[in-house]
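Hi X.,

You mentioned you wanted examples for the new student's onboarding notes, showing what a folding record looks like when two proteins sit in one file. Here is a clean example. The first protein comes first, with its sequence line followed by its structure tokens.
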Amino acid sequence: MPRPEEELIAILKKQGIDFTASLPCEKIKTLLEMVGRDFYHVPLTREEEGVGICAGAALSGRRPALFVQSSGIGNMINALLSLTQFYELPLALFISRRGIYQEKIEAQFPMGQRLPAILSGAGITYSKINNKNDIGTMDQELQEVFDKDRIHAFLLSPEVWEGSECGARSAECGVEKPIECRSEASTNKRPASPPALTRYDIIKLIAPYLEGKAVVSNLGWPSKELYAVKHQPSNFYMLGSMGMVTPIGLGIALSSSKDVIVIDGDGSLLMNPGTLATAASLAPKNLTILAIDNGAYGSTGNQPTLASSCVDLEQVARGFGFRETTKVSTEKEIAEIMKQQRKGPAFIHVLAIPGNKDVPNIPVHHLEIKKQVQEFLKM
């Protein structure tokens, strides 16, 4: 008789799952060990970035599954609603449910016990997998995730895995060699002149170099300015989910051969910096992150960010493992770096001055945005 992990893995394979991401949980360590062995797998630094990466993979035609602990739902609920659910992208969400069965850590009780009510309130359907006999019931719901482009959460009780251990000693379950960063070293470093261009000026400068590339643009004014300057079907305009633009671009780059340009900002990167570590470790050669740093939260009134005073985003990227980085600010510097043939993942830190261009809202429906990008990525 197959172990419960083996039965679940078989269902995932039957349903064509081909992209997985996870954060560790002691209760499902054996399952995650098997997932990492049998599927393309992305180790995460935070649950929220997993939503963005899986969204990018889904845009590229992959069938993603995300494995997290119940406490992590609190870190990802906005991204699930304003990104995955809003754009009607499929996501199979497997949640190791703590705080309900022989739980010894009291801090796990509040989230674990309220999880069904939280998911119901968010409009996310779910199934309770209370023991190993329930695993077979997951097949139909998993199929509908991809047939209907929706999120479905499978709440996995620790009781499911009772009596199932990995082959190694228990203390060594899931322990592997350290993850190696695959980014290659670069000497492309130089000081930048003081900023003199707004984000809109910079988007106008880089527009010719975006032609025919998958472009993922930060929410609010950056996306509106990009639409006004260089609308193309390959642009994915974010309309919500701050902090998710680099994860989405990373998910596309990992799932497609297209060149991917991410237009991110300092406020957004500071919200979810761990994705830079994930990108550096996986090192997709087709990914360029263009970090337009104006030291301000441009879409909420130009309040200052910490990048305006004490944070150097290029050094942050290098500290997380990026080797191909540069800092630019003038028209000449920006044009030169965009002309270069880059071997990613590359991080271009573009210094800017605050300010938004008075441009209209994007007149394209969000599902049409998704459709156009999906069609481009299929080409």
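Then the second protein repeats the pattern, sequence line and then tokens:
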Amino acid sequence: MRGLRFIILLLIAIPLAWYAYHDSTKGPVDDSPKRDKVFTVEADKIDELEIKSESGDRTTLRRKGSNWEIVQPIAASADQAAVSGITSNLSSVEIQRVIDENPADLKEFGLAEPRVEVAFKSNGQQRRLQLGQKTPSGSDVYAKLPDAKKVFLVPSFLDSTFNRSTFDLRDKSVLKLDREKVDTVEVTSGGGTTRLEKKNGEWQIAAPPSGRAEFGAIDGLVSRISAVQMKSIVPDASDLKKYGLDKPAVTVRLGSGSSQATLLIGGPAETGSVYAKDFSRPTVFTIESTLLDDLKKDASEYRQKDLFDARSFNTTRLEIVRNGQTTVFEKTKVKDKDGKEQEKWRQAAPAARDVDAAKIEALISAATGARATGFVDSTAKTGLDKPELSLAFKYDEGKEERVAFARTKEGAYASRPGSPGAAKVDASVIDAIVKALEDVK
């Protein structure tokens, strides 16, 4: 009896298991409502746009090759990202819900005189979308097609996507230059000029006096200049004096090989803005005033603050002169008891001896961690004619550098051959090097 009951249960379980497996292979059930698209068009097939914004601007744009250009009311390059947002949303916009198939009064929806209209041409056929008011909740916007009666809802984010003025739709880049290829920066301000040059991939201060440059600081400056955007455009730019551009507060030139771009920055505009002009174009516009502050910085702001390029991992020799005595440490290669090659630090002068590698590492770190807190134009009155301490490094298979340190009543200083003036340093830097040297001894 039990066997028969088992067979019956098995016969019931097999088809149930099959159905369960079959349903599981279909994947998750999509029970979200199916919505109709407003238009059947591919974004890359749209070749002309006409935008009427809430402000009243009417802007016509046409595709030229892979880019878009504004053709009315001005001729200008378009903001490619903004236009791409419009075309992609036109191709994908869906009707969220139909509100009224035959409305008696379009004023109720703000569609008697639509706030925003977007028209496009694709394969010679023009279509148009009209936007009215937002719904009370603000999540959707009332919309319709001019050749149909029904009013429907589209997502409210489309309002900011489509509601663009001519200025919103234009390319607001100030300078047309590839920042990666910029190799010179020249900033003239207050009668003085700072010139920065990139050679062999490294930035240098070419003027006023030449010196080692802080790569990150200059690279950041180049990025800010190349990426500066117009905030607004001045309608009448005939009188440059009115905007402080007849005698600019700052003139900045970016060079890229034989190409050059020049930006003139004039007087203050509205809060947080200044007037500016690309030397090669008649248009006057406003930009963020923070760029002017950056460009007015002294050349010393771009000098390399690290006194040494060497580091503990790449140093092979260290020579220290203090109190008339020269101490030399060298990294050598020896074989351990198993015949494996390993690196080892030894003192080579004044007497040859083994030294504690960890203490040498601490000495090198104390020296190479030294940074300038500022700079002075002359080494006079710095005590560097008779330095308290001098360090010379060899690193990276042949590179050499030497830095001298001195103290006076006014402060502590350091200098490198070939670098103008002297660097100001904290006196604690010298103390740390001396202590680390004494620990090794």
